[in-house]
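Q: what does this look like with NAP bound?
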Amino acid sequence: MNIIILGGTGSIGSAILNDLSKNTENSFYISSTNTDSLEKITEKYNCSGKVLDIMNHNSIESFFEDSTNYLESIDAVINCIGSILLKPMHLATFNEIMDTFHMNTIQSALTIKYSIPLMRKNGGSIILFSSAAAKIGLKNHDIISSAKGAIDSMVKSSAMTYARHNIRINAISPGLVESNLSRNIIKNKFSLDYSLALHPLNRIGQPKNIVPAVKWLLDKDSDWITGKSIRIDGGLSNLK
Ligand SMILES: NC(=O)c1ccc[n+]([C@@H]2O[C@H](COP(=O)([O-])OP(=O)(O)OC[C@H]3O[C@@H](n4cnc5c(N)ncnc54)[C@H](OP(=O)(O)O)[C@@H]3O)[C@@H](O)[C@H]2O)c1
């Protein structure tokens, strides 16, 4: 498979890349925000990629354009870029609200926008990242849960729009996973204990816990699955 991984140097993105690269038939084009990290990872996995700033529209457009210079056709796009903002609405600044929607919702919309022309002929699979927090009302998640919740709605409608082109669009919705994004939450004992109590399995997820669902969605035998947001969250969103 020819696979684009946006955020391939992130915690979940690199775990996905590491696992999928065990299949030598897979080729990758990945994004990173950092030239050194990109060089290291593309060398390690013998793949190519480009520095991308998802907040810059031109950068997204040229990233997708350039991917086709390296990969002849695109079978899958996995978008692991995103952010977390834990603040009650009245304390968040205008820029924090805008940035959270840009970093999660708007960039997911643009990922679909630029992936479709690359997949229109042969079909394909797009995987976005939502959050289990979008499924329930969690304190201080006002902004991030609404930004991620919009991705769940987008996945459903876009899956319907592009089903006739055999393009499947799904999302993964993690609970709290140990990663660069969650480092500050996890290193604070109070917030770690609070988070553990929210997850019935009483542990924080690891990036490797997310990989099986991604592989399953990419599998040929899963080619009847579209428009879903799959929660991988230690029971956070549906057990009480
Ligand atoms: N960790 C959690 O608890 C959790 C929970 C729910 C949902 N999620 C979602 O899961 C996905 C993966 O997150 P993660 O946990 O793996 O966190 P992570 O390690 O911080 O990964 C985030 C990725 O976003 C990239 N990124 C950040 N700013 C960017 C920008 N301006 N332009 C382009 N790329 C940018 C980072 O690039 P670099 O690699 O260059 O830094 C990194 O690859 C995200 O969508 C996140 O919202 C995570």
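The mean pLDDT is 97. The longest helix spans residues 94-119.
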